[in-house]
Write a structure and sequence with these properties.
The chain has 118 residues and is an alpha/beta fold. It has a single domain, classed as ATPase, V1 complex, subunit F (Rossmann fold, 3-Layer(aba) Sandwich). It has a four-stranded parallel beta sheet. The longest helix is centred in the middle third of the chain and has 14 residues. The protein is globular. V-ATPase is a heteromultimeric enzyme made up of two complexes: the ATP-hydrolytic V1 complex and the proton translocation V0 complex.
Length: 118
């Protein structure tokens, strides 16, 4: 099952996605023309849009190994992010240019702290 998972997907703002695409993360599937990135636009992208992108990358696609999501966007769908417990894809929260990383909000770190009884 894990051998099919070769891509990194992103749900991020334009600046973060641009940097990651320039680094070579971008992929468009030849058959369906699906992108492995979703651009969040402040004030234009709805909570439902973010939820649909998260659902697509975590449940519908079987080629995604890692999902990178800006932490401030993860906050928009915090319940979905915290509730996702599957091994694949690994969901990692990352900072953006305008929103610093807050380890207290990170769902992975919360789970680790619970494991260690903190």
């Amino acid at each position: 099952m894990a051998e099919k998972r070769t891509l990194i997907a992103t749900i991020a703002d334009e600046d973060t996605n641009t940097g990651l695409l320039l680094a070579g993360v971008g992929q468009v599937t030849p058959e369906t023309h699906e992108k492995n990135f979703f651009v969040y636009e402040e004030g234009r992208t709805t909570k439902d849009d973010v939820r649909k992108a998260f659902e697509k990358f975590t449940s519908e696609r079987d080629d995604i190994a890692i999902l990178l999501i800006n932490q401030h966007i993860a906050d928009v769908i915090r319940g979905d992010v915290d509730g996702f417990t599957d091994a694949f894809p690994a969901v990692l929260e990352i900072p953006s240019k305008d929103h610093p990383y807050n380890p207290e909000k990170d769902s992975v770190l919360k789970r680790v702290r619970r494991l260690f009884g903190e």
